[in-house]
Amino acid sequence: MRDLWDEDLLEFATEHTESAPPSADEMPPWNILIVDDDEEVHIITRLVLRDYVLDGRPARLFHAYSAQEAKALLSSESGIAVILLDVVMETDDAGLRLVRWIRDDLQNRLVRIILRTGQPGVAPEKQVITEYEINDYKSKTEITDIKLYTAITVALRGYRDLRSIQEHTRGFGHIIRSARSVLRHRNLNEFFSQAMEEAALLAGIDHEDWNTAPGVRGICLRAVDRGYMVVAVRGGYEVESGTRLPPDLSALNHPATAEIIAQVQGKPGIVFTDSEFCAHFQSQNGEYKTTLLIAAPGPLTHLDKELLHVFTSHIEVSYENLSLGQSIETSQREIIYTLGEVVESRSQETGNHVRRVGALAELLATLAGMDETQRSAMRLAAPMHDIGKIGIPDSILNKPGALTEEEREIIQSHAEIGYSILRSGKKGILQLAAELAYTHHERWDGSGYPRGLAGQSIPLSGRIVAIADVFDALTHTRVYKKAWTMEDALDYIGQNGGTQFDPELARRFVQSREEIKRIFNKYEEG
């Protein structure tokens, strides 16, 4: 075994100082920094490591000839795995000071530091190992090519393992943050839209990558009758959220996506390709089925897949709980709609009136700046606005001609009757329903009933339902009138803003023609 500083070896090394750079398809190299003021040390180290490979990755050497040069390089290059560091350079303790700077100022605990010195008396091994956070200590006189090779390999394995632990820690921390972000959403569509964004981050996709990186795409599909509904979509697909797709996904114009999605249908599970992640979620009762696909710009690493597995498990549990809550809410909504339809049928109005009023109330709640929870509550409570009509005689409700003063007073009492029925409810939805049932016939100018409230003293829920109820009544046939056109009804709402209706709400509502048309198309009369 030859000494590393053998003269013949040095002469050979001077002629062969550089190895060929790694090809583009090789694994990224291990970055090793040599810090020494002796050029011969750099030359010999280059020779010994010129064919070095660990885990399929070659070595790439960086060179610094003083502690100051090393600081500059370490400040700009964050991926150094191992430092071969001399002690005595511009000063007797320059290397030791550099160790302190790396650990304390740069806060780099990952890089492995091998201290090499030709003057062990200046830096005694026991003292240096105890007082400085280094990983190995070598005297230059004892280092052979094999010992250097061994020391580098041990150091790189330590760096690799620490880096893996760090990446796992960061990844699991991101999963916790991502899960919290997703769980804030109580609506299944919004839940999965956020889940897709968070899964993309775990797959190494930044927000700007959706529009710039080739091959990056994401889509979330919910199973519906005779196909799928696009819940969320990003990247290279030619469809929008809300689009209905056939079972074979041919309208997606992306056979690769259709193929991988087909692999996960039928039961919950995950499929990975080289750069794609696809997960299928299904509630236990089979009522809700959702598929999520992410395509990354490059191959998914083992860590990427591991983190996506864990994230998917979190989403799966949350999805089941949310699906159960959604089923309960759907049942509650159907009960409310049925109750509203029973009341409306007594006045010979169609059941879709309460559904349209609920949807219009949700739209107006959005225009008023309400949050997701408040909007959902308005949609659920608004169909109960006329529940007090259950106490009004049929002869008055269905009278085609003008009402007498006494009959008018009786029919106006439905607001108070509805309030009396609903106010005893302990749930927030029933309390909200009681409020809007009581106040949706109040007018902005104070001339409404039952209490003659005016302006901002009318609860927002009542102001919202006032517009939704009147607009729907105007645009549909009643026993006492023919249906108005949508434009005529919108003109009426706009003209009566500031007298009958909240002027700002009326203005925003009139400007929302397209959203109103979508609601009417969904709940058109049969």
TrEMBL record:
<feature type="domain" description="Response regulatory">
    <location>
        <begin position="31"/>
        <end position="155"/>
    </location>
</feature>
<feature type="domain" description="HD-GYP">
    <location>
        <begin position="328"/>
        <end position="525"/>
    </location>
</feature>
<dbReference type="InterPro" id="IPR011006">
    <property type="entry name" value="CheY-like_superfamily"/>
</dbReference>
<feature type="modified residue" description="4-aspartylphosphate">
    <location>
        <position position="86"/>
    </location>
</feature>
<dbReference type="GO" id="GO:0000160">
    <property type="term" value="P:phosphorelay signal transduction system"/>
</dbReference>
<protein>
    <submittedName>
        <fullName>Uncharacterized protein</fullName>
    </submittedName>
</protein>
<keyword id="KW-0597">Phosphoprotein</keyword>
<dbReference type="Pfam" id="PF13487">
    <property type="entry name" value="HD_5"/>
</dbReference>
<dbReference type="InterPro" id="IPR021800">
    <property type="entry name" value="DUF3369"/>
</dbReference>
<dbReference type="InterPro" id="IPR001789">
    <property type="entry name" value="Sig_transdc_resp-reg_receiver"/>
</dbReference>
<dbReference type="InterPro" id="IPR003607">
    <property type="entry name" value="HD/PDEase_dom"/>
</dbReference>
<dbReference type="InterPro" id="IPR037522">
    <property type="entry name" value="HD_GYP_dom"/>
</dbReference>
<dbReference type="InterPro" id="IPR052020">
    <property type="entry name" value="Cyclic_di-GMP/3'3'-cGAMP_PDE"/>
</dbReference>
<dbReference type="Pfam" id="PF11849">
    <property type="entry name" value="DUF3369"/>
</dbReference>
